[in-house]
Amino acid sequence: MSGQKSDYGFETIAIHAGAAPDPTTGARVTPIYQTTSYVFEDVDQAASLFNLQTFGNIYSRLTNPTVSVLEERVATLEGGAAGLAVASGHAAQMVLMFALMEPGDEFIASTKLYGGSITQFGVSFKKMGWTCHFADPDDPDSFKPLINERTKAIFIESASNPGGVIADIEAFAKIAHDAGLPLIVDNTCATPWGCRPIEWGADVVVHSATKYLGGHGNSVGGVIVESGDFDWSASGKFPAIAAPCEAYHGLNFYETFGRFALTAYGRAVALRDLGPALSPFNAFLLLTGIETLPLRMERHGRNAIKVAEYLAGHDKVSWVSFAGLPGSRYHALQKKYLPNGAPPLFTFGLKGGFEAGVKLVESVNILSHLANIGDTRSLILHPASTTHRQLTEEQQEAAGAGPDVVRLSVGIETVDDIIADLEQGLAQI
Ligand SMILES: *Cc1c(COP(=O)(O)O)cnc(C)c1O
C-alpha cells in the first residue's frame, strides 16, 4: 500500500501506509535501518542521485528507509502529497520556515501556541532576521491588518496546547489565500485522527510526533506534510522553492517537483544544510506508536470527558477549559473540525491560584508532573511555574497559561484511578 490519496480507512492507513514486507528478508514490520550510507550502483547513478534526478538513498541525513516509511505514513494520514520527518517538532518548524522565509521576512502566528513555539518564533527566529507577529486565534480577522508585502505565512494550531483553543481553520485558510499566503497548521494536539486540516484548506501541516503520534513518551520527532495544492510561484514570494537554486545548478524546485516542491526543498537544502535528521530508531518507535493511534485516541478521549466532568463539579476548581464540554465556547468548532472529540488535553483553574497549582502537581501519585503531553500515562503540569515561566505574565495569560492554570494530558489508565489520584491531590490544597 503506497501512494498518498488513499481509499483505505484511517485505521488501515495507520498500520499499512508506506510499508511493505522487506524485499530482502520478508520481515513484515519495517526494520530499523540503522545505517548512514548506501552503495551506489555506478558513477552515473550516483550523479543522478546527487542531481536530484533519481530518488534514492545517499546518506541518512537526507533519507533513510525507516524514516521514509514514517514520512509516507503521516502524509497519508493527513491526506497530503508528501512528508518530511525531522528530529523534533521544533526542527520541523525551523526547516519549514527556512524554506519559506528570507532575512527581513515576517509571518503571523496565533498567541495561543505551545509555549516553546512562542519562544522559538518570537525570540530565536529573530536571529535569522525573521519577525513573527502574534494575533488572537479567536478573532481570525485580527490577522488581516498584520499582513504586508514581507508576510510569508500564517501559523496556527488546530487545537492549541495548552489553552484548548479550536481554530476556525476554514476562516484562516481564506484569509491566507486571499493574500497569496500558505496556511500552516500545527496538528500535534488534534492528531490526524481528530482533524485533517488539509481538508479545510491548510497548505502545510506540522507535527511534534513526540506527542500523540508516537504516543508512548519514548521518542522525540517531528513531521512536515505539504498538501501539494499551494502555488509557490504565483506571488513571487517564495524564491527558495520557486526560483533557480544556486546549490543545485539553477534547479527550480517547484518546476521540477510540483506537488512535492516544499518537501524536496526541505530535504535537499534545509535538512541537508541545517542537519536535524530523525534517527531511524526513533522513526521505528514512532511508526509502532502510530499503528494504535486510533485506539489510543478513542480511550484518551473517553477518559478525558470523565475527568473534565469530575473537575467541573469540584469546589476547588474555578473553571475547566475543555472543548468537549457542551458549555465550552469552542464546542461548536470542535464538533465541526474535530468530530471524533476534543483533544484529551485541557486546562483548568484552581481557586487557590499559583500556590494551589504547585501543591497539586506535587501531591499526585499516578499522574506524572512533567513537561510533555500525549503519553499513555496521565500527565500534569503547572505551566506558569515550568514551560511558560520564560514568558511575561501578560504573555502567560495570552497563551492561556496564567498562574492558576493546571494542564492535564489525560492518559489511558483506568479512569477511576486517574480521578481518585486527582481527588486526593485536590484534598491536600
Ligand atoms: C511539543 C510541541 C511542539 C514542539 O515539538 P518537539 O517535538 O518538543 O520539538 C510543537 N507544537 C506543539 C503543539 C507541541 O505540543
TrEMBL record:
**Family annotation (InterPro entries):** Cys/Met-Metab_PyrdxlP-dep_enz (IPR000277), Cys_met_metab_PP (IPR054542), OAc-hSer/O-AcSer_sulfhydrylase (IPR006235), PyrdxlP-dep_Trfase (IPR015424), PyrdxlP-dep_Trfase_major (IPR015421), PyrdxlP-dep_Trfase_small (IPR015422)
Pfam families found in the cross-reference section: Cys_Met_Meta_PP
- Gene Ontology MF, one: O-acetylhomoserine aminocarboxypropyltransferase activity
Record-listed E.C. numbers: 2.5.1.49
Q: Provide this UniProt record's keywords sorted from A to Z.
A: Pyridoxal phosphate, Transferase
Cofactor(s) this protein cannot do without: pyridoxal 5'-phosphate
* Entry superkingdom: Bacteria
Positions carrying N6-(pyridoxal phosphate)lysine: 211
Q: What class of enzyme is it?
A: transferase
Q: Enumerate the NCBIfam families for this protein.
A: OAH_OAS_sulfhy, PRK05994.1
* PANTHER family named among the record's database cross-references: HOMOCYSTEINE/CYSTEINE SYNTHASE, HOMOCYSTEINE_CYSTEINE SYNTHASE
Q: Which family does it belong to?
A: Belongs to the trans-sulfuration enzymes family.
Q: What is this protein called?
A: O-acetylhomoserine aminocarboxypropyltransferase
**UniProt organism field:** Minwuia thermotolerans
